């Protein structure tokens, strides 16, 4: 079946500090649509534009949906472009650490340390993989690494966002 573009009622975007990933959460209600997902637009623009698509079904009724997608995204851009029913909108990216010194302190890394994150998943291994990938991007030929601290953070004022974190120390 062909996907149809659908327009969410609400779109939010989250990141932790200067992380190079963003979580997009879109919510809405559609008649006769399932398999709803967030996709990048085929338009070749920078920064890329995202939209919600779904497959039509022959079922009556309006179906609520909440979809999310974690994307690689430059940390120096503080918005995402999203296709809505009233055109392309700039959705501000909420930095969940902003104004929260306790959270910043919890996630602070020292020398030879990186922080890996996994947004809205139940598998902490994804945070470990993220930390390992960040070390690999430093072009270190050989290293050993050790997890110094890890945990899960769920913030009451961002009900659609929680994350695992891993602080990994590496030695060359």
Can you tell me about this structure?
With 172 residues, the protein is mainly beta. It has two domains: 4-95; 101-171, Dodecin subunit-like. The chain is 10% helix and 52% strand. It contains two helices and eleven strands. It has helices spanning 101-106, 125-136, and strands at 4-6, 10-15, 21-31, 33-40, 49-56, 62-72, 79-84, 87-95, 113-119, 144-154, 162-171. Strands 1, 2, 3, 4, 5, 6, 7 and 8 form an eight-stranded mixed β-sheet that branches. A hairpin with an 8-residue loop joins strand 4 and strand 5. The model has no long low-confidence stretch (mean pLDDT 90).
Biggest pleated sheet: 8 strands, mixed
How many structural domains in the coordinates? 2
**Whole-number mean pLDDT:** 90
User: Uncertain spans, ≥5 residues at pLDDT below 50?
Assistant: none
Number of helices: 2
Jot down its keywords:
172 residues, mainly beta, Dodecin subunit-like, eight-stranded mixed beta sheet, 2 helices, elongated
Set out the fold topology:
Elements: E1 4-6, E2 10-15, E3 21-31, E4 33-40, E5 49-56, E6 62-72, E7 79-84, E8 87-95, H1 101-106, E9 113-119, H2 125-136, E10 144-154, E11 162-171
Parallel strand pairs: 2-8, 5-7
Antiparallel strand pairs: 1-5, 2-3, 3-6, 4-5, 7-8, 9-11, 10-11
Short description:
The chain is 10% helix and 52% strand.
